[in-house]
Amino acid sequence: MAKFCDKQLDLDAKVIEFTFSDGTVVTADIGALSQEIQLQLMMHGASQKLGDSYASAKGNVAEGVASLEKTIDTLKSGSWTAGRADGETKPRTTELAEALARIKGIDIAAAQAAVEAADEDKRKTLRSHPKVKAVIAAIRAEKAARKAEKSEGAEDLDV
Questions:
Q1: What H or E segment, with its residue span, contains residue 17?
Q2: Cys-Cys crosslink for 99: which of 45, 61, 77, 135, Cβ 3.0 to 4.6 Å?
Q3: 3-state secondary structure of 108
Q4: Measured on CA atoms in the order 103, 104, 107, 112, is the torsion positive or negative?
Q5: Antiparallel, parallel or unpaired: β 25-29 and 5-10
Q6: Rounded to whole angstroms, how far apart are CA atoms 94 and 55?
Q7: Average pLDDT over residues 106-132
Q8: All residues at 6 or more sequence positions from 133 whose CB lies less than 8 Å from its CB, including other chains
């Protein structure tokens, strides 16, 4: 199935080209916009990028802060992404990092960095360790309990 809309960015020309699945092409010349609108777009994009960095924290403040600070540092260093190869997706490591932090008694940011530095085989080995599995199960149970506490209407369940 064809992608609904593909976006191509030309940073030098300040142009974004949108190509829809039916072949329709729409070009947005960002350079032609006023400086005020360009600034608003920049701030919106920054807010979105930085907000995305902690979206997977799911209420874990320490993890969210660590992710946000890491993204800010990455941007300050002049890099858009945190050391990933082109086309490579970042593995989901939040539960694993949290489990390792609890087991080892280390900071979540240090655990997250260690997990991200590990190759996929090492992450699989860590995830399969019985103690890590048990702590991940506990983390998931805690998240489910928090979600249940926030939910309303349980008394209306027809059982």
A1: strand 15-20
A2: 135
A3: helix
A4: negative
A5: unpaired
A6: 11
A7: 86
A8: 127
In this structure, what token pair is assigned to residue 12? 């030098």
d(CA 115, CA 71): 16
What residues does each domain of the chain span?
Answer: 91-150
pTM beyond 0.70, yes or no: no
Amino acid found at 106 = I
Tokens of 129: 């360790």
Q: How far apart are CA 91 and CA 119, in angstroms?
A: 10
Q: What is the DSSP letter of 114?
A: H
3-class DSSP assignment, residue 29:
strand
Side chain identity at 144, as an amino acid letter? A
Residue 96: name the closest of 66, 124, 60, 58 by CA. Answer: 124
DSSP secondary structure letters along 32-64: GS-HHHHHHHHHHHHHHHHHHHTGGGTT-HHHH
- Crossing angle of helices 61-76/94-104, nearest 10°? 110
Among candidate residues 54, 46, 48, the one with its CA nearest the CA of residue 112 = 54
* Tens of pLDDT, residues 45-69: 999 999 988 888 888 888 889 989 9
